DUF2244 domain-containing protein
Amino acid sequence: MTAVETQAPHTVRSGEPLLLDACLRPNRSLSPRGFVILMSAVCAISFVGGLAFFLAGAWPVVGFMGLDVLLIYFAFRINYRDGRNYETLCMSPDDLEVTKVNYHGKAKRWHFQPAWLQVHIDNPVEHDSALTLRSHGKSLVIGSFLAPEERAEVANVVSEALMKARQANISPAQI
């Protein structure tokens, strides 16, 4: 699956066709079943190691090995929670709506006019390169959870949609 899940173009309430309808989601490659298997293996290894230390007389080590298991578990739970974040991009010829939804389901929306919008990403794309939308002196970073190659792909898709939006807004009198 790619970083940009595009859907078939449809129309928004105003009747304008959507030039871009994309959903950006973080990659979570470990399935819930894989998580159970991984945690079972971590628990088994810690139990065997802890038993060996206990039998050798180093019983305080058992508590630290249990603490390691708990920390690994909570780290994965936080990772899965953050995996519920997503961003949507919906562009018509007159508007780009960016919606960021956090793991609680709370959404924040930003609107941009495609005629004035700039898409910026470093070239070449590096690990810490931000994908930024800029307009009227304000900027918004999108796709921060994506891999660098995926951010470059999103930048290309948004730039292509911007060109289509600008072409759709040119009237025959301006030509």
Notes: Residues 6-11 have pLDDT under 50 and may be disordered.
